[in-house]
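Task 17 of the worksheet. Students: predict the tertiary structure of the chain below and write it out as structure tokens. Keep your answer in the requested format; marks are given for formatting as well as content.
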Amino acid sequence: SIIDKKNNLIPKFLFVSNSVPEKQRDLTIIEGNEKVLKARLSDANYFWKTDISNTFENWNEKLKNVLFYEGLGSLHDKITRMSKISNNFACYFDINKSLVKEAVNLSKADLVSEMVNEFPELQGIMGGYYAKLKGKPKEVSIAIYEHYKPKGISDDIPKTKLGSLLSIVDKIDTLTSFFVIGKNPSGSKDPFALRRCGFSIVQVLIKSKLNISFNDVFSLSLTLHNHYKKNVETSLIGFIIDKLKFILKGQ
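Model answer:
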């Protein structure tokens, strides 16, 4: 896709054909690319129109039937845990609790939208657009857009306080939940990208300059899982301290 000098999308595209130029064949290839692109844009237009006629309430109801992971409940259960954790962090980030609650409750709704179902890489991005379109507070729509960040150690941190809070709460729940059911990363294996979660939590804590201990970061999240063992907390704290050491060594 092509953008102009003001970063606006324009109706042109480029593709690479790894072959010697030949006019008639090149025209056929161009037409083929145009047909594929038109079909994808037509699909996206249909998904957009379908989604904007839907509601966040309806999407959140659907999340009750979407499994987060076996033993960890549904995506709706994850939101419930995130909501409880977020109450603790609202004071650290100095954000109104009602605004935090709204952002958390809307954060995963787009996962069952038509657009994200077809284009998974747009998770969060579409949620932010839909929240804005539905008249939700600007801070909430931006936070939804930002909360999957950072996606790696070199990725950008959320720019807003609410986005940072939502990001860290999401990742704290994910990290804690998988440690509780014994899915810690081992060796080079990390199928749930928990190391990335750990790095992201530390990056947000450092950038936000939160005066909080790692024990307090995970304490409430751990208590939301019945019968968790003390060694889980020890492993979790050790894991996150390793990520902190790595980042500080890099600095």
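Marker's comment: The longest strand covers residues 2-3. The mean pLDDT is 94.
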